[in-house]
Amino acid sequence: MKCQAVMDLIERLAPKRLAEKWDNPGLLVGSPLQEVGKVYVCLDVSLPAAEEAIAAGADMMVAHHPMIFNGLRHVRTDLYDGRLLQLLLSHNVAVYAAHTNLDIAQGGVNDVLAAAVGLERVEGFAVTDEASGACIGRMGYLPEKMPLADFARQVKSRLGAECVRVVQGNDRQVQKVALCSGAGADFIGKAAFKGADVYLTGDVKYHDAQKAVQQGINVIDAGHFATEFPVVKVLADYLRQESREMKKTLEVVTDTVSRDYFTNL
Ligand SMILES: [Zn+2]
Q1: Are residues 14 and 53 in the same domain?
Q2: Which residues are annotated as a binding site for a divalent metal cation?
Q3: What does pLDDT average to over the chain?
Q4: Which UniProt keywords apply (predicted)?
Q5: Domain count, the chain
Q6: Per-residue pLDDT tens for 23-32?
Q7: Domain shared by 111 and 223, yes or no
Q8: Where does the pLDDT of residue 97 fall: very low under 50, low under 70, confident under 90, or very high at 90 and above?
Q9: What is the rounded average pLDDT of the residues 212-218?
Q10: Given this model, what pLDDT does residue 152 score?
Q11: Residue 149 pLDDT
Q12: Last residue of a domain, which of 42, 68, 99?
């Protein structure tokens, strides 16, 4: 398949127009015209991931986080980013990122997270585009009320997280859940305002936790990695199935080397 055809498949799931204005999704390395026989799906284009992709014979990496985000001032091969680009270009590996467009898309990162933690009646959470009604984050309900600690344990096991951190903002049982994958602490107030019993996200800081307690909402921080990594398998399965339906030969493999950068001792 042409790289462009793979891009078209991804953009059918996660149209680029859904992305936030500050974002940088799309083809970041390579050419739409190059042939792609094998795609490697990952969260981050790191050196270990690129090395795994190249060893697997992949021609294209599809990532969630854009490896070029704030622009480039140089391509210095003695530094990490330049070495990574040199490695990718010398092996003719294209890089494509589907970031906030994949967060917002139906069936994207947040829907995958909502399904993984057991939510039903899932709807949008924070509107990003009034005209289309597109939303980042999701709200939904657990089939039954449960203690906060039980839900936290459920999140931890379903996401395969090494640890979850819990902020107890009230002592009620939880059923209505708001969530935002990755770094979603900015929406704690919105989750409280919308009447969620608990808000699930990653990258929560001390003062975010303080705000949650003051607003009386429970928060579970399951980590940036654990709230987003489940989409890797879903995106890979999507590309496999769609290319098969088009009767195209496309192999799809997933990142097996990346782990959360945080470890808990
Ligand atoms: Zn992220």
Answers
A1: yes
A2: 64-65, 103, 224, 228
A3: 97
A4: Metal-binding
A5: 2
A6: 999 999 999 9
A7: yes
A8: very high
A9: 98
A10: 98
A11: 98
A12: 99
DSSP label of 247 = T
- CATH classification of the domain holding 69: 3.40.1390.30
What's the confidence (pLDDT) of residue 116? 98
pLDDT value of residue 184? 97
Ligand 1 centroid to 256 CA: how many Å?
18
pLDDT confidence tier of residue 12, bands split at 50, 70 and 90: very high
DSSP codes of every residue in 109-131: HHHHHHHHTT-EEEEEEEEEETT
Q: Distance from the CA of 248 to the center of ligand 1, in angstroms?
A: 30
Host domain of residue 73? 3-99
Co-location of 93 and 168 in the same domain: no
Q: What is the mean pLDDT of residues 185-209?
A: 98
Ligand 1 centroid to Cα of residue 247, in Å, is 32
- Residues with Cβ within 8 Å of 104's Cβ and at least 6 positions away in sequence, in order, are 14, 18, 19, 110, 128, 134, 135, 136
CA of 202 to the centre of ligand 1 (A): 9
Report yes or no on 64 lying in a domain: yes
Q: Cα separation of 144 and 161, whole Å?
A: 23
Ligand 1 mean position to 156 CA, how many Å? 18
Query: How far apart, in whole angstroms, are the C-alpha atoms of residue 122 and residue 264?
Result: 32
| 115 shares a domain with 198 | yes
Binding-site positions: 64-65, 103, 224, 228
Residue at a domain's end among 64, 83, 99: 99
Which helix or strand (DSSP H or E) is residue 241 part of? helix 230-245
For residue 265, report the distance from its CA to the centre of ligand 1, in Å: 23
